[in-house]
Amino acid sequence: MAKAGHAYPQVEPGVAALMDPRVVTVGPGRSVARALARARAAGARVVVLDGRSAVRETELARAARWGLDLRPARDVAWSGLVTLSVDATEVETRRRLLAGASLVLVRGPRGVVGVVDAERHGLPPAESSVLPRLERAGDRQSEARLWLLRVAGKTGERLGTPAYAVGGFVRDLLLGATPPDVDLVVEGDGVTFARRLAEEIGGTLLVHGSFGTASIEGGRAPAGAGRDGAALGRVDVASARREHYPAAGALPDVEPAGLAEDLRRRDFSVNALAVALAPDRFGRLLDPLGGHADVRRRRLRVLRPLAFVEDPTRIFRAARYAARLGFRPDVATQAAIRLGVTARPYPALSGQRLWREIELAAAEPRARRVFELLGKWQATRILNIEGSSRYLGQAERLARWGKGAGVAADPGELFLLALCIGRTRDVVERALDRLALTGEPRARIEAGMTAAPLARRLEARRLRPSEVDEMLAAASGTAVLAAWLRGGATARRRIQWYLARGRAVRPRLSGEDLLALGVPRGPRVGEALGMLRRHRLDGDAGSLAEERDLVKEWLTSGKEA
Predict the structure, then answer these.
(1) pTM of the entire structure?
(2) Helices 477-486/489-500 angle, 10° precision
(3) Of 96, 93, 52, 58, residue with least CA distance to 74
(4) Which CATH architecture has domain 15-117?
C-alpha cells in the first residue's frame, strides 16, 4: 500500500514504450512489389532494408499503386535513419523525434528489432517563442501584421477553432525577412473562420470550397494599430487537413485533420512550422519536424521520399527556394528529386499546372538560377525538354530590361523561349503539348522559333533605322523577343531601340494636315504618313516645316519618297 508523502523511484520505460516491433527485413535491391508482399505476409508495418534505411508498408503500397512496383525498394525508402540501441531511454528517443526524425530504428543484439514512428506521436511541446521577432521590427507594416495575428487568434478562440500562422510566413519570419503575405491554418472550419476574420479586418473574401480554403485581400488595420491603417496584404486561410493522392501528380483528395497531420503532409521541413495564435499561447513556435534547425542551416529537407512523385511541381518549388533563399537540398532530398524526375510522364499532372510553375519560376528575383537548377536536376524532362539552355541568362537580362524600360514582355514566355531555342521542331511541339498550350499562346511560341533569320538580318552592318523598323514591325512581338535572345550585341541594341522608342515615332503632321496640303483622301494619306515616319526615323525631318517640304516634294514627284 502506497504511503502518503513517501518518495518512490521513477521507472524509465525506455525506448520500448514507443517502439513498434512489427518490422521485417529484406534486401535493399528487392523490388517494391516483392518488399510489399513480404511486409504483408509478415504483418509488418515497416520494412527494414539495411541498418540505416527503411520504408513503411503504406508507402510501399502507394509506390506500387503509382507504377513504381518494379523499382528497387531502396528508391522509395527513408535513408540515413537514426538507429538507437534497445537499451536507449525514452528521453533520448523523444529527443531524436523532436529533431525531426520520421523513423527511428531500434537495434538489438541480432539486428533491428523495432521502429519508432513519429507519425504515431502527437505534436511536441512548443519549443520557443517568436513573439520577440514579431514585435522587433516596429515598422508600420509589422505592427499591422502583429495586430492581424492577434485578431486571428481571438477569432479562432471565439469559434473554438485554434488558429496558427504556418508555412512560408513562419519560415521567412525565422529568416529575419518580412513575409509579404500571411498563411493561416485552423483546426476546424477554415471557411467559417475566414468569413469572421474578414468581418474583423475588412477586405474581399474569396472562397475555394473544394479545398476548405479562402483568401482575404484588401484588409487594413484600424487607425492606431499599424499606424493609421496599414494595408495587411493577402491572408490565406485553410482548414487543417490530410491529403490522399489518387494518382502520381494528381491534385489530392483532402479531409479534415489536426495540425500535426497538416504539418506532416507538407513538402519541406522549413514549411512545416507553425506559430500558435491563441491568446494564452500567442507566439509559441511548433516545430514537430526539425524545420527551425533546417532554416538556420539553410537546408532543404523533403518530408517524404515520395513527395516529388506525389506532386512533381514541388521540384520547381525546391529550385525556387534554393535560388531565392540559398537553401541547399540534402542528400535525401536530392535522391527524392531524382525519383520524381524518373517517375514521369505523370499523365494526371495537367499542363496548366506546369505552366503556372514556369510563370512562378520566371517571376523569381534569380529566375535564371531557378531554371539552371531545374536543368541540372534534369527536371526539365517533365516538360519534355532535355537539360538546360545557354539562353537563360539572356532571358533574365531581357526581362529585367523590359521591366525597367516599360516594355511588356511576359517572363514566362521569355524563359520558355530560352528553353526551346535551338531544339528541333519535334521537341518544341512535344513541350508545347505537355504544357497544353493552344491557340494564340502556342502560336506566339512557335513564331519565336522562326526568329533566327531575323536575328541574322539585324546584325547587318549598314541598316537605316527605318529599315530596322520595317523588319521588326513585320514580325510578331514574340519573334522580336526571340530574335533578341538569339542575336548578337548589334541585333539586341537595335531591338531595344525599336521597342523602347522606334515603334512609337510618329510624324508631326496629322492626316488633316496632309489633306490641307493637297494629299488626296484615301490610301495616299496613309502612304504619306508612312513616308514622313520613315524620314523622321532616319533623322531627315525634325520640324513641321521640314515635313511640309517633304510632302510637297512627294506630291510633285508623284511617287513615294
Answers:
(1) 0.91
(2) 150
(3) 52
(4) Roll (3.10)
